[in-house]
Amino acid sequence: MKILVAVKCVPDPETVIKIAPDGSNIVGDNVKWVINPFDEIAIEEALRVKEKVPGSEVVLVSIGAKTAQEQLRTGLAMGADRAILVLSEQALEPLAVARVIQKLAETEKPDLLLMGKQAIDDDSNCVGQMVAELLEWPQATFASKLELAADPKSAKVTREVDGGLETLAIPLPAVVTADLRLNEPRYASLPGIMKARKKELKEIPVADLGVDVAPRLKIQKLETPPKRTGGRKVKSVQELVQVLHSEAKVI
Fold this sequence. Notes:
CATH topology: Rossmann fold
Structural class: alpha/beta
CATH superfamily: HUPs
Largest sheet: 9 strands, mixed
Shape: globular
Helix content: 25-40%
CATH class: Alpha Beta
Low-confidence stretches: none
Strand content: 25-35%
Order of helices and strands: EEEHEHEHEHEEEEHEH
Number of strands: 11
CATH architecture: 3-Layer(aba) Sandwich
């Protein structure tokens, strides 16, 4: 099998984010960038499939500046076979990202396309669905379990829905987006880190793909949420109800 895994670089969740003075973006200086946690889960699942299906290949793809090489090398150190970096100095919108991944999927012809269900920076949660539509492939989003058939030409995907679990049977090739409970990503080993330096990391300028990446959305303003105020104690249930009704206005 060939498995294509989409990887996005996002600010480390532990990083303190600062907003630019004009409110159009975040300040990127001194920000530590990491693999989007849901994409890291997708990488781990691809590696587990590779371990079960001999001869499989895991290919990572990311879109961004040259600095994204670091996150791709991390994925290679985990065990992926090679990586593709689509160079773009500007941040691409979800539709443009989906079109880039579509182009790469048409070239690479993977049996399975894995990605995180969403990125933790913009929380758009739509690229996987868009890619499936553009490729006209089956899709299974929010996957918490992935089981391949013995062929493997089909798969069963358990996904989390409101009120329970849903199991889908889908033919391959297909798009699957990873949820939090799909697996626990492994750490890159020292031998894996050493091997990652010699693995192929191909760079392709986004202009060479012939994909329409023109922006269609405009950020009006970014602002930090208001600081939470401290709570206060009330003496009785009656007083609590009164405060919730008159001050908080939630009942």
